[in-house]
Prior knowledge:
Blueprint: E1 7-8, H1 10-18, E2 31-35, H2 52-55, E3 66-67, E4 72-75, E5 83-86, E6 91-105, E7 116-134, E8 143-145
Antiparallel strand pairs: 1-7, 2-3, 2-6, 4-5, 5-8, 6-7
Amino acid sequence: MAITTSGVYWVNMEKAMIGTLPTSYESTSAAYWGVTDATTSTDANFDAVEFRNNAAITEGTNMTADPLVTPTIALATPLTNQMNHNFADPQWTSITTTVMGGIVTSGDATDSLDEVYYLQDFVTAATTSSGTLDVAIHADGALVWS
């Protein structure tokens, strides 16, 4: 099964809400992964997947996780009863790859027990050939919830 939708991994969102998630969404040890369509963690299991080893993440060719830079959780401005998770735009240089989405995890290593936070479906593939791949995070944040 390929990436079919964006979504939040609810097991870890629940942990974040009750304060038992071991790594904060605001931690700089959290990471953004560019993932291919071979990633099989989709809407069918957002309610059950907790760790990387369950998410079947397939990184883009020659890509490594990009640690989150200046991650924040903040109230939306103006106050709209929303919060957002935001960070600097991830970037990879000198790579040749095609990615279909991005996934945020609690760590930037290949630790199979890194928690998965959410998956973003790009809908249209992002491709680069020996170039730079930038993911532009929306001004309202990578994840907005109310």
